[in-house]
Amino acid sequence: MSPHPVTQLLTYECSGQAVLDETTQEALLKSVSENKDKIAREQPDKLAKLSSDIELVTLEVLIERFEEMLEQKLNENKWQEFFNENPFILSMAFGYPIIKVGDQASIGGSSVAQEKRLQTF
Description:
mainly alpha, 121 residues, extended
């Protein structure tokens, strides 16, 4: 069974294999965005499928990026950037909501209470 056409489109786009020009893509995105309430009321199953397809292709692209990063043996700062850009990954990995307190923990010299930012994902 082949993937849903929307899944295919998103997969191609996220992997850099554009199948629609940018103007067409923008028009499609704008149309869906402007009609999301109507679609949710009249075709909730199709909207749910689209949402699922978007999540799936996003996860596929993130897995590819994660694997590429593993091969590069990057330092902690690069990994921190990756998880800051994609905070939901940790919740998915552990199966529980994750709360992030600050960017990096310090050993000695400072405490978590001194951190200014509290982020919940």
